[in-house]
Amino acid sequence: MAKKILMCGNDACGEGAVLAGCRFYAGYPITPQNELTAYMAKRMYETGGVFIQAESELAAINMVFGAAAAGMRAMTSSSSPGVSLKQEGISYLTGCELPCVIVNMQRGGPGLGNIAPSQGDYFQSVKGGGHGDYKIMVLAPSSAQELLEYTFLAFDLADKYRNPALILGDGLLGQMMEPVQMQPVDYNPKLIEKPWALTGCRGRKPNIIKSLYLGDGALEAHNKRLQEKFKLIKDTEVRAETFHTKDSEIVLVAYGSAARIARAAMDMARDKGLKVGMIRPITLWPFPEKLIEDACNIAKKFLVVEMSAGQMVEDVRLAVNGRAKVDFYGRMGGGIPTESEILEKIEALV
Amino acid sequence: MKKTKKHKIKTSPEAGSDNIIFNRPVSLTNAENHFCAGCGHGIVHRLVCEAIDEFGIRERVIAVAPVGCAVLAYDYWDFDVAEAAHGRTPAVATGIKRVRPDNIVFTYQGDGDLAAIGTAEIIHAANRGENITVIFVNNGVYGMTGGQMAPTTLAGQKTSTTIHGRSLRREGYPIKILEMLAVLPGAKYVERVSVHSAQETLRAKRAISKAFKMQIDNKGFSIVEVLSMCPTYWNMTPIQAADRIKNEVATFYPLGVLKSC
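ok -> structure tokens follow
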């Protein structure tokens, strides 16, 4: 029988990275993700990898840039204010087409905010975050188990597309302890050749990692290539979970921590005989817009539940495109919606 | 350009004949460079390549280029190069060197990159004792963006953002970053040189070679500051600019070894 270990989400995330062959981690302390940094310090030591406590978030993401450029599976993690600081680096990583994994255990904002869980960084995560036209793959786990599995997956996706991938968690997921099955899937990371990596030019022409394109039309051509890649990711990598969408008049849409609570509210509503279903995006970018579009064939109303003032709801509205009513329930600044609050909203929609 | 010498510049040393006394280093490509007349960058690029050729490490080298006038270094160097975000150069070099300790990793940075926006990165890379080599080109001005004041701009020096000259009261003091780094136990070799004359250029070459040798021997962090001319934004001829280093810049930033372990 596969071994189950009680661990917090931050540790599970770290173990997912280790299983994926991540052997470089650079980070900077910030609550509520500190367990992850400490876990990586221990595990990089044990596995012969590199752990660096950087002088800043800027240094950490750029150390990851260096390690990724040299061909290593590399990761950094932080929480909201720290991830804001990393945005410059993420733009460069994407421009240079370097694979890496970034973890954001979101906390309340704006500014220093607080250390309570939040989903206020959705826009920053899925709309680009830094300067320039780019996308990064965003995975939203909703348990410690999924933090392990999706962090593992994020490394394969990052390498496959030569693009950064982000794990978007929150303080609740990072801190909560749950049993985690260590070998639920076949953990064979897809380690691929990286002929573009900087290894020294023995027996080949020099490799250059850069995002500067000054020649006439050169940057536009580079951007077109990037956009083709983003389209391929969009066509290939959408992941979502659906519940009762075949017969539901009301469909909840929620991700991460909010999805677990919304699911409980859905069960309560169905116990009362209400036809309520749910779509839970696992990839926030690419967003499961087709699933939502299809759900409009049956659903009359959508209720988007977030721990924010309403960010993902905009993408749901774009996918629904006026074919159904889209309502929103959210809590901010560390507030967490309860099942009964959501149930009350559902009942008001009926 | 008027040809004044009968010698041809050959690209590979083995193809040489008795007539050839000055080859282009193998590590230096024959790309036409973008530097202004009298700029020191071309000299420093060459010195770096000469040192790399002499140690026979071209195929092991991974360079990290900065944002600034040297941003196009990858066009001129015939080895692996990463381009870093402004000032993050030592952090990128740290990531590369830590996962590839057998490669020779160096950064090439200007005074804006190293002594302003990247101050934290250089200090902490030195303090961690990263086994990397840093070539720091100090010309006291932001050349790429049009001649603004740098942290290293001398008192009274006119720039596009200090039109009446740098005021110590208003803009603060020129920063002696090498002296700051020299006190860190992690920094093992710290020297300031200049390329304003043939004699000083030879000294600069020796210092750059020493800095690479430190890394090859796993001795830790080494940095060479090279005082360099920017005739364009000093509003001078190349000769005046070279004289200015000798008479003004090098008196404020004294040449020599600050530390050698």
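Residues 87 and 130 of chain A are 5 Å apart (CA to CA).
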